[in-house]
C-alpha cells in the first residue's frame, strides 16, 4: 500500500502546479472547493495529473465524492492497493 504522506506530498505538488497554491496549504482536512478554492476545471486537471503520477484510475463518477484532500489521498492509496 502506498504511503499516504507520499501521496499527500505528490498531490500537493500537482495542486501547486495547477493553482499556484503553496504545497503547505494542501492538507488532509482541506476541502478542494471551499478551502482551496479549486474550480471544477482545475479539479479535472488535478485528477488527470494524479492518475498519471500515481498510476491509478479515478472514474469521473468518483471525483464528486473526493471533496477533501484526505478523500483523494485515501482513494489513491486504496486504488494502489
From TrEMBL:
<keyword id="KW-0276">Fatty acid metabolism</keyword>
<keyword id="KW-0596">Phosphopantetheine</keyword>
<dbReference type="InterPro" id="IPR003231">
    <property type="entry name" value="ACP"/>
</dbReference>
<dbReference type="Pfam" id="PF00550">
    <property type="entry name" value="PP-binding"/>
</dbReference>
<keyword id="KW-0444">Lipid biosynthesis</keyword>
<keyword id="KW-0275">Fatty acid biosynthesis</keyword>
<feature type="domain" description="Carrier">
    <location>
        <begin position="2"/>
        <end position="80"/>
    </location>
</feature>
<dbReference type="InterPro" id="IPR009081">
    <property type="entry name" value="PP-bd_ACP"/>
</dbReference>
<protein>
    <recommendedName>
        <fullName>Acyl carrier protein</fullName>
    </recommendedName>
</protein>
<keyword id="KW-0443">Lipid metabolism</keyword>
<dbReference type="InterPro" id="IPR036736">
    <property type="entry name" value="ACP-like_sf"/>
</dbReference>
<comment type="similarity">
    <text>Belongs to the acyl carrier protein (ACP) family.</text>
</comment>
<comment type="pathway">
    <text>Lipid metabolism; fatty acid biosynthesis.</text>
</comment>
<feature type="modified residue" description="O-(pantetheine 4'-phosphoryl)serine">
    <location>
        <position position="40"/>
    </location>
</feature>
<comment type="function">
    <text>Carrier of the growing fatty acid chain in fatty acid biosynthesis.</text>
</comment>
<keyword id="KW-0597">Phosphoprotein</keyword>
<keyword id="KW-0963">Cytoplasm</keyword>
Amino acid at each position: 500500500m502506498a504511503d499516504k504522506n507520499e501521496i499527500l506530498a505528490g498531490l500537493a505538488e500537482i495542486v501547486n502546479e495547477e493553482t499556484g497554491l503553496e504545497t503547505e496549504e494542501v492538507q488532509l482536512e482541506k476541502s478542494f472547493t471551499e478551502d482551496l478554492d479549486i474550480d471544477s476545471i482545475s479539479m479535472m486537471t488535478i485528477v488527470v495529473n494524479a492518475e498519471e503520477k500515481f498510476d491509478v484510475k479515478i472514474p469521473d463518477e468518483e471525483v464528486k465524492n473526493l471533496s477533501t484532500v484526505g478523500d483523494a489521498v485515501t482513494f489513491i492509496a486504496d486504488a494502489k492497493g
